[in-house]
Amino acid sequence: MNRNISNSIIYNVYPTSFYDSNGDGIGDLKGITQKLDYIKQFADIVWVNPVYKSPFRDGGYDVQDYYQIDEKFGTMEDVEALTHEAHARGMKVLFDLVVGHTSDQHQWFLESQKAEPNEYSDYYVWNDDVFGWCPYKHMTGTCERNGNYLINFFSFQPSLNFGFAKKTQSWQHLYDEEPCCKLHDIVIDIIKFYMKKGIDGFRVDLANSIVKDDVDGEYSCRVWRKIFGKVREEYPEAIFVSEWGQPKFAVPKGTFDIDFITHCYFEGYNLLLRQEAGTNVLKNDGHSYFRKEGQGECNTFFDYFLENLAAVQGSGYISVVSGNHDLPRVSMGRTQEELKTVFAFLLALPTVPLIYYGDEIGMPYSNLKTKDGGYCRTGARTPMQWNDGKNAGFSQTDGETYLPIHENYTEVNSEAQAKDPKSLLNGVKDLVEAKRAYLGDFTPDAAFQLVQTGYPVVFTRKENGKTFFCAVNPSDRTYEIDVPANGKVLLSENVTLEGGKAQMGGVSYLWMLA
Ligand code: NOJ
């Protein structure tokens, strides 16, 4: 178990849109390196979405060559410079490991689809007749070979052959037999290649998808356990974060250090933050807990969260994200004050939280036409709003930026917010600083108690004789609650304290230590 990340915070950078160092309108690796000091204010782990050579039909999640950096992002030397500079600041860098599938332009697939059998024929999951029965999501009639290939996501993302949990068709392979085991070695090689360049670990894309017909991911877990076991022999501190959504499986069984809780598999997350129509990639319609109307509930979230927290204790951590490149922005329909309550909650939970770039300033969601396979995700991938200057300080280009910059950049940008003590940026910074200064003693394994749900939500974490007390009221109503009588206030917003009671005003939060 990787205990030295127990109090970490992850910052997720979508590389095309963070900072353009060479004026071509597209963000790049050098740009991330130049902004490490900015990121360090909020986080100590940077996760960078894919930067490998790719046709970019799914934002780089369609890898054409795992061993090459796409030229729009820079070079392998830029990777080494990024990790070097990050380490000099006590920070870590995670890359994205996208190995459930490749691009259909990957050389392995171009060979695999040929009619004549060759060394790559079994790298992907093929049935044995284009007219044959195939109950899986697949493509048919596009290749030389007489077979259909299984796809993992879009049509151009053929599934690599990690095999099946059970063999029911003659063309299937078992997950722990050849040719699937060969892929395990290939994945280990890719991981070690980047660890040698200084990368500290990986966020693992669709981690539960690799073995097919796998109920609860039991067999995918076996494969990851094997792969990580081999990597950890050489790199015991390597960090693996899963895109799974079920920490109770991914962490203890798959030996992931962290699993993300997002919109997938679990409605509790959506009921917290993303239940209103248009605020999710899912077709939700209802009320989130974090809205000033105060018509939501957080019990569904906590039921699942606490069950999973108990299951990961002693083996790893959960991450509840502010957002990511797959979701409309958390800022939708929320004021900066309301967003502060979101962060006061997310940064107080016993987790390794994740801040999606720009969420710390409430970057807006843009209604944009799809680009690079983004569809409704595109509007959450716009250039970072650094200042009110040319291209919001993102790029010096006179041409187009990767995506259009949101028009509110003259008001919503990090430079202006840094100067305003009441800004969201400074609110998040204060929370991060308090977490770093006072919550270091409270690991995610500390005793957690949910004092009350409804509005406000109140919980405590206890360790080494100390109590951390958190109350968050996202609604615009005022409530009175009991607080620890001798507690010291770490941070508060719109709260009045008097004799062991707190008046939690509308849209307020309180962090105390007792
Ligand atoms: C999950 C990634 O986060 C998403 O952006 C991508 O489209 C799919 N996996 C396919 O790789």
Set out the fold topology.
Elements: E1 10-13, H1 29-34, H2 36-40, E2 45-48, E3 52-53, E4 65-69, H3 76-88, E5 92-97, H4 107-112, E6 138-139, E7 149-150, H5 180-196, E8 201-204, H6 218-234, E9 239-242, H7 247-250, E10 258-261, H8 267-273, H9 299-312, E11 317-320, H10 336-346, E12 354-356, H11 414-419, H12 424-438, E13 447-452, E14 457-463, E15 466-473, E16 479-482, E17 488-498, E18 501-513
Parallel strand pairs: 1-2, 1-12, 2-5, 5-8, 8-9, 9-10, 10-11
Antiparallel strand pairs: 3-4, 6-7, 13-14, 14-15, 15-18, 16-18, 17-18
Helix pairs in contact: 5-6, 8-9, 10-12
3D architecture notes:
With 514 residues, the protein is an alpha/beta fold. It folds into three domains: 361 residues, Glycosidases (TIM Barrel, Alpha-Beta Barrel), CATH 3.20.20; 59 residues, Oligo-1,6-glucosidase, Domain 2 (Oligo-1,6-glucosidase, domain 2), CATH 3.90.400.10; 69 residues, Immunoglobulin-like (Sandwich), CATH 2.60.40.1180. Helices cover 24% and strands 18% of the residues. The protein contains twelve helices and 18 strands. The strands form four sheets. Strands 11-10-9-8-5-2-1-12 form an eight-stranded parallel beta sheet, with helices on one face. Strands 13, 14, 15, 16, 17 and 18 form a six-stranded antiparallel beta sheet that branches. A hairpin with a 4-residue loop joins β13 and β14. α5 packs across α6. The site of 1-deoxynojirimycin has 10 residues, from loops.
